[in-house]
Amino acid sequence: MLPRYSLALMLSVMLFPFAGRCAGADDARAVLAVSGVRGGLVVHLGCGDGELTMALRAGEQYLVDGLDADATDAAKARERVRAAKLYGPVSVAELAGERLPYAGNLVNLLVVSEAGKVSEAEM
User: Fold this and answer.
1) Which residue pairs from 115-120 have beta carbons closer than 8 angstroms and sit at least 24 positions apart in sequence?
2) What is the pTM of this model?
3) Which residues pair with 114 in a beta bridge?
């Protein structure tokens, strides 16, 4: 069963059922396979503990940003990424507000676990 995440890829949005288990490498592989993205900037909105965020860096061709509206979650995810020695190719930041901090058409794949205040139009 595929994980439940919203994927915003270019102008399309796809939804996947989630079995309620922790997200990780299997979920990241499934999301990347369905999206067809083979590299570039992947953004994980609502990154929580950072586990899926780190797993989305499936190779050197990926740069992954995790965003979370909760400052505590963002700090915990950032520490987890640092502990895994992935900080740089994977980064985590607190998302303040309703806008994503990227120029238009910069993001190759947007994985949404928790949209928070970010509208579907912004995605």
Assistant:
1) 115/6, 115/45, 115/46, 116/45, 116/46, 116/69, 117/69, 118/45, 120/13
2) 0.84
3) none
